[in-house]
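cache lookup: miss for this entity combination. No prior model stored, computing from scratch. Input as submitted by user K.M.:
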Amino acid sequence: MNERQMFLRRLKAGLKGMPRSTVADIVADYDSHFEAGQAAGRSEAEVAFRLGDPTRLARELQAEAGLRRWEDERSMAAALGVIVGVLGLAALDLFIVLPLLIAAVASVFSFFVAGLAVCLSGSVMLPFALITNLPGFAGDRLQAGLLSLGLASGGASLIAFCILFTIGLINVLARYGRAHYRLIAPQPSV
Amino acid sequence: MDPNLVQFKKGVLELCVLALLSQADSYGYDIASRLADAIDMGEGTIYPLMRRMQKDGMVTTYLVESASGPPRKYYRLTASGRDSLNAQKAAWTDFTRSVAAVLEQHQEKTP
């Protein structure tokens, strides 16, 4: 197999998961780059060397696509895309962030689950507290109702805090990932 | 290469591409190799940039048959691309002038 095929194959393998038409466009660009390079009298090996490592190139393209999507829409899927994209880059040369990132994601997730549980149990307790009293509760119905209400809203604010923290974390990740591109130019922030 | 220098060069890459295209329409390899020579950048960096500039409406593309191999994709500057070039050029000129002025002062003080 020659250098050109090898480069394109590794690039394509690295772009797995992106929309097929996007992958085709990207691969076509680099394919014609080889074509034009040869027309200009360069060897395939030389063109490939100047383009850089195709695996790294693919990871950076993936990360950038994820970051741009996050900027367009603040959705759960887009946030996940940023995390996966930056992790892909991190696996190549940013080993230090991996444990930090995993710890941050795990703790946010557990706070989120805790908040959800507290909020849910508060909401479930509320109607019971108002209609009858809570079983085994020493105070009167008003106290039981206020207690349930407090749990529900406390849980909800914990969830809201987790979401805000996650958005902040993703934005930091986006900036961090972009600062570590070597082969592609980041989108200048407008 | 110094990593700071890499980031610095990436910042002006778009300006350079706009300036090249304002002289004449061009295709990816040509832009890449000319810029790589001029500012010492990896050649692969040009394609994601071109895709984004196309998405932002700064350039359009058209295909031209080539003597050897498949047709080549040429990039042409749009009106909004030209506006962006003028704005970025003005900002760059201002910035470099200010930096040069500061550096000159620094030189005068240190004999």
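stored under new cache key. Chain B touches chain A at residues 6-7, 10-11, 13-14, 27-30, 32-33, 36, 42-45, 47-52, 66, 68-70, 72-73 (CB under 8 Å).
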